[in-house]
Sequence to fold (186 residues):
Amino acid sequence: MVLDMIANAAEGQIAAGRFVLRHARKSDAGLFALYAGDRRVAEATHSIPHPLPPGAAEAFVARAMTCRAEEEIWVMDGSGTGLDEVLGVISLKRMDLGQQTGGQSEIGYWVAPAFWNTGIASEAVKALVAANPQKNRTIFAEVFQDNPGSARVLTNTGFQYLGDAETFSVARNGRVPTWTYVKKLD
Fold:
């Protein structure tokens, strides 16, 4: 299975159990707008505004299709197994771009509310970490303290609690307490 993940990652897809992780395409914008426009999704992220402004989904797709040096974004696509074409999004953002330390990224994800509590996020995180397309040595993650489900996703996929912090949420228009996690891949 690991060899299949590596081969598919080279083609831009990563097998993730009931779905694949693939790069975004223009046709994803409508479902992104629907799901990311949900207050519950927006308020669980750092950067999605609520309400979602016109054109925001299209701008996200354009960025996802072009910005691969700094951040790689994958769509959780279940269409091959009878699920929806867009189940959510997962990304790896390089933390050390242009530095010699190498191998550090931050993982982020959101799942459409219709698929919450179904294991989709855990499958996506596990598959992306196993494929390790950025050849990371360390992956960090941060979740809001009022989102214990996302914290469980991380601990269930081998991330270790690192500490408390806080970050700004655009949808909440304020700073929100977070839990920070780390996974060493060495």
About this structure: The longest helix spans residues 120-131. The CA atoms of residues 117 and 149 lie 8 Å apart. Strands lie at 13-15, 20-23, 71-77, 88-94, 104-111, 138-144, 160-169, 174-184. Helices lie at 2-10, 29-36, 39-42, 56-66, 120-131, 148-156.
